[in-house]
Amino acid sequence: MKALTLAFSLILAAGPALAGPVTLKTNPSDDDGRVTLGDVFDDAGSAADVVIATRTGPSIVFEAGQLQGLALRSGLQWSNPRGLRRVVVRQGAATPSASPAAGSATASISRPGATVDVLTYARNLSAGDVIQPEDVVWTAVQSHQAMASGPHDAEQVIGLSARRALRAGSPVAARDLASPQVIARNDTVEVAFISGGVKLTVTGRATRSAAVGDPVPVLNLASGKTIEAIATGPGLAVTGPAAQAARSNSNSFARQGR
């Protein structure tokens, strides 16, 4: 019995080492709603037909760690060399019910009784909840319920926070969501001025709350002057030439709701 237990332990320990390396496809997609390892990875071999999820809308989002675990169960090793956080698998071209392109969306919505796929909330959310991949799902609704400003990809809203309580089944709208605050009023903030390879920093106190990409006035306690900066992370902001780039990096979908 001890020998069998030891052998089993060795097999488990050797599992990752025996896993075959695979490469993430440039644009993962499936054609029938059944997402397989072969849809996601090149060189999946005999595991290519292993189904790892069912896609119910135009796309499905995997956390990178989740995808690594699913691959490893079938003896595949994905090292995630680019350090991706999430992977989106979209509907393939062979499926006629693909989400409408921007040019055809108006025609699709205008037909009486027509249905369209929209991103909806999969569960009730409280104000301040941060949207996770499992919190949104594509749902077919009557065209009059679809919003022209709705997201075209789940990746646009994952990581945003709810402005208010949201009900399961409601279409996702920009007015519902905001980028999570990374700086609160009165937080200590390090402001960096970066130009031509030179970086100068000063520490001050935020005079209002801000999300990534939001303006945040920072009071320099030493000089008593207020620095107009852009929030870049928890307790961090930039000013000067880097500020415009930092503002551009904020979530564009969240900015629509402001």
TrEMBL record:
Domain SAF: 116-178
Organism: Brevundimonas variabilis
UniProt xrefs under Pfam families: ChapFlgA
Cited NCBIfam families: flgA_cterm
Signal peptide (UniProt feature, chain positions): 1-19
PANTHER family: FLAGELLA BASAL BODY P-RING FORMATION PROTEIN FLGA
Official protein name in the record: Flagella basal body P-ring formation protein FlgA
GO biological process: bacterial-type flagellum assembly
Principal location class: periplasm
Entries under CDD domains matching the protein: SAF_CpaB_FlgA_like (cd11614)
